Amino acid sequence: MRALRRVGALALVCACVAAVVVYQSDRPAPAKPDPVVFVPSCGFYRNFSPSVRVTLADVYWLTTIQYYGEHVNSDHRLDSLPAMVRLVTDLSPHFTAAYFFGSFAMIDVGRPDIAYALLKSGFAANPHDWHFPFYLGFFAYTFATNSQRFEVAAQWYAKAARLPGCPDFVSRLAAELATRGGSTQTAIDLWTQVWVTGVTTGDKYTRQKAVTALDKLLPTGKVAREHAVGALESEVPRTLLPQFIADVFQGY
After folding, report:
1. Pairwise CA distance, residues 251 & 215, whole Å
2. Nearest alpha-carbon partner for 158 in 125, 126, 124, 192
3. What's the whole-number average pLDDT of the chain?
4. What are the φ/ψ torsions at residue 168 (nearest 5 degrees)?
5. pLDDT (tens digit, 9 = 90+) per residue, 150-162?
6. In whole angstroms, what is the distance from residue 172 CA to residue 149 CA?
7. pLDDT band at 32; cut points 50, 70, 90
8. Do 156 and 250 lie in a common domain?
9. Helices (DSSP H) in the chain: which residue ranges?
10. What is the pTM of this model?
11. Domain that holds residue 211
């Protein structure tokens, strides 16, 4: 009896599998999702209370994620994504994840220009978040093609480095890019800030890296170097100034 029940159960499973296969083969293929969808204007929601707008932003955010998932692995078209992200962030300007997601999604489809614009909008709405200028610097360095890309990236990294919570290495990135871009005075100013960070945090590596870079950037003549260092006094805390002078005048 047990053997018969097992055979019967196996037959039932096989019948179910066959039915599913037949159903899947006969079912019409799902329609391809449209890359262009209607996105309402944020102006329609202007008079809603802030809490309602945030709730609506969450709803549209889920729609945005679904839209991305439908297209990123199919037609690879995200025509309406910028408008969808702008709607979400207009409703909830401090929803930083939406800006970051939207910008990197646009990189996926080869539109760094839109990604850059989204990040700039996010930084305008969230001026104390160092991630925005950091990513703007990264995008400028990675995707820009003009000769000013090093200088522009250095400026963004420098802005990021001045904001709370930003890792120390970002200031070194800013200084290195300014050096590579040929912006000598900007590079000197940034390396001076890197030196201050290295001394105040006890980071010997950062301090020595700044000293080495400044030695190459500052004038070689003693008098000319004295003038150049004198112009940097406002960048260095008074208590650290003797130490700074000693470091940049090694060998003189």
Report:
1. 10
2. 192
3. 85
4. -65, -30
5. 999 999 999 999 9
6. 17
7. low
8. yes
9. 2-26, 50-72, 81-91, 96-108, 112-125, 131-143, 149-161, 169-180, 184-201, 204-217, 222-230, 241-248
10. 0.78
11. 151-252
Residue 57 in domain: yes
One domain for residues 244 and 161: yes
- As to burial, measured by CB atoms within 10 angstroms (0-12 exposed, 13-18 middle, 19+ buried), residue 62 is exposed
Q: Are both 179 and 236 inside the same structural domain?
A: yes
Burial tier of 226 (Cβ tally within 10 Å: 0-12, 13-18, 19+): middle
Q: For helices 184-201 and 204-217, give the axis angle rounded to 10 degrees.
A: 160
Residue-wise pLDDT for 214-240, tens only, equals 999 999 999 999 999 999 999 999 999
Both 163 and 251 in a single domain? yes
Note the pLDDT tens digit of each residue in 167-200: 989 999 999 999 999 999 999 999 999 999 999 9
CA angle 231, 236, 239 (to 5 degrees): 125
- What length does the chain have? 252
Residues 89 and 180 in one domain: no
| Residue keyed to tokens 């204007």 | 41
For CA atoms 101, 103, 104, 110, give the dihedral sign: positive
User: Half-sphere exposure (CA, 13 Å, Cβ side) for 101?
Assistant: 19
Q: Is the backbone of residue 40 left (phi > 0), alpha (psi -120 to 50) or beta?
A: beta
Look at the chain and report how many structural domains it folds into: 2
Coil, helix or strand for 85? helix
108: confidence class by pLDDT, cuts 50, 70, 90: confident
Helix (H, G, I), strand (E, B) or coil at 179: helix
